[in-house]
Design goal:
By secondary structure, the protein is of the alpha/beta class. Helices cover 28% and strands 24% of the residues. It has nine helices and 15 strands. The chain has a seven-stranded mixed β-sheet. It has a six-stranded mixed β-sheet with strand order 9-10-11-13-14-15. A hairpin with an 8-residue loop joins strand 9 and strand 10. The longest helix is centred in the N-terminal third of the chain and has 21 residues. Zinc ion binds next to helix 4. The site of zinc ion has 5 residues, from helix 4.
């Protein structure tokens, strides 16, 4: 018995030595790297609403696109040197299935933002189990092409042929005005041109609607005017069974800079002073409320909550779960 045990031990020792000499997993073949990703959507419930974040793409925000004090911007450049991913940014749209209708809030870039790493939203929508034809309403936060490009193809076809599109009147009047476009700086011209081309087929079909004030578009949804980034920049707040989700558009572009320094603006802000004031007011309000925030440029899926941290704010992202039909847990206050 003792002899058999010691022989087994010797055999095991030899096998271990052999594997040590050859490398621990030498017998396993190399595996290919797959170089693709899981489908770009993420769902959760807000009361009875099913909210699905739809991935459009990722990019990098340029430090020269940010405006802050010299001291703040020197700090950003220094931090960026040590952390090249400091200004990584995402783009997303959000689908709300109320149980009766499909409402899309912002639609990504389509082919109007350089293509490449962007323009995935329609594919993400299909991956999530829906078709563009099934979308009945599109609410747009503003008319920059990273939010409305997905509406229209380059040859002027509606991507969402059955959708009624809603936008603030101040927003539509600004970007679709030939007079304002003619006087705008050269750098801003592409934003006017794309807005006009993207809106045109919906206007022609009678599916371009503007609102002012606090008119009702959908039951359980409030308009939240957030002017500054653009003249009619608007958030949409949905409530269901005591839970709320706010689609806040471009309140934040560079999450790791502007939450600590809400005074830092982006060169794309049409009214820099108003953009900073709107961000200050909204962040302060949201940090004291239990409202789920949906931000197209926050790290995908762009869903989270806000808390005070020092003189600024921190972002508490929604944690991945496959329990999508349960409410997202609320942090302890
Ligand atoms: Zn944007």
């Amino acid at each position: 018995m003792l002899k058999r045990t010691s022989m087994r031990f010797a055999a095991a020792l030899l096998a271990a030595l052999a594997s040590f000499v050859a490398g621990p997993n030498a017998a396993l073949p190399a595996q290919p790297q797959h170089q693709d990703q899981a489908p770009g959507f993420y769902r959760l419930k807000v009361g009875d609403l099913e909210v699905t974040a739809l991935y459009d793409g990722t990019g990098v925000f340029g430090p020269r696109w940010l405006n802050g004090t010299t001291a703040t911007m020197d700090g950003v450049l220094k931090a960026l040197h040590e952390d090249p991913h400091l200004l990584d940014v995402a783009d997303a749209g959000f689908l709300v299935n109320t149980g009766k209708q499909l409402i899309l809030v912002d639609v990504g870039t389509g082919t109007w933002w350089g293509g490449g790493a962007f323009g995935r939203l329609a594919g993400s929508l299909r991956s999530a189990g829906y078709t563009p034809e099934a979308v009945g309403i599109v609410l747009v936060t503003h008319l920059h092409s990273d939010h409305v490009g997905g509406l229209t193809t380059q040859d002027g076809k509606r991507v969402f042929p059955n959708a009624e599109v809603y936008v603030a009147k101040a927003e539509s009047d600004f970007w679709l005005s030939p007079d304002i476009a003619a006087k705008a700086p050269k750098d801003a011209q592409p934003f006017f041109q794309s807005a006009q081309a993207i809106a045109a087929p919906y206007m022609k079909a009678g599916k371009w609607h503007t609102f002012s004030g606090s008119g009702k578009i959908v039951d359980g949804m409030e308009l939240v005017p957030l002017p500054g980034h653009t003249p009619g920049h608007t958030g949409y707040e949905f409530s269901s069974r005591g839970q709320k989700v706010l689609f806040w558009g471009d309140i934040v572009h560079a999450v790791r800079v502007q939450l600590q320094h809400p005074e830092v603006t982006a060169m794309f802000d049409v009214d820099q002073t108003a953009a900073a004031a709107t961000r200050h007011q909204l962040l302060l309000k949201l940090a004291s409320e239990d409202v789920l925030i949906a931000g197209p440029h926050m790290n995908f899926p762009g869903l989270g909550r806000l808390h005070r941290e020092g003189s600024g704010y921190s972002w508490a992202p929604v944690v991945f779960t496959d329990q999508w039909n349960k409410p997202a847990p609320s942090p302890q206050k």
